[in-house]
Amino acid sequence: xxxxxxxxxxxxxxxxxxxxxxxxxxxxxxxxxxxxxxxxxxxxxxxxxxxxxxxxxxxxxxxxxxxxxxxxxxxxxxxxxxxxxxxxxxxxxxxxxxxxxxxxxxxxxxxxxxxxxxxxxxxxxxxxxxxxxxxxxxxxxxxxxxxxxxxxxxxxxxxxxxxxxx
Length: 166
Prior knowledge:
The chain is of the alpha+beta class. It contains 4 helices and 7 strands. Helices cover about 30% and strands about 35% of the residues.
């Protein structure tokens, strides 16, 4: 990790296993708008937020109680000139024990301040990690983005984007 990669750290009283399980429950803390498996090695899943952000991830490391890594295979932002800024980056969850607690270090490797999306992504990831994921781990209830009302529109958008961007 370089100094400029986006990173957040949280400490909780729950076990590494509980933290690991919460991380992999993406619909419980990140978004209900996720298609595909999110809890096994080599799984590929799509995330979308309306027609603003769509990405495709692959789980490339999956070590229970220790680490999860997603590779961003493809990405689209409607609000940036370079709408593929996340493409080729890695989202890393490192879990360890620290002073009788479980430490989670979240790093979006490659998400750097020079990116046009950085401020928006900084705010969003900070909220999801510090609030929603933390809450899911500690209380069993996160605050994910709720399912879109117009699911058919979003499914069509994802299919179109996925075919065009490959």
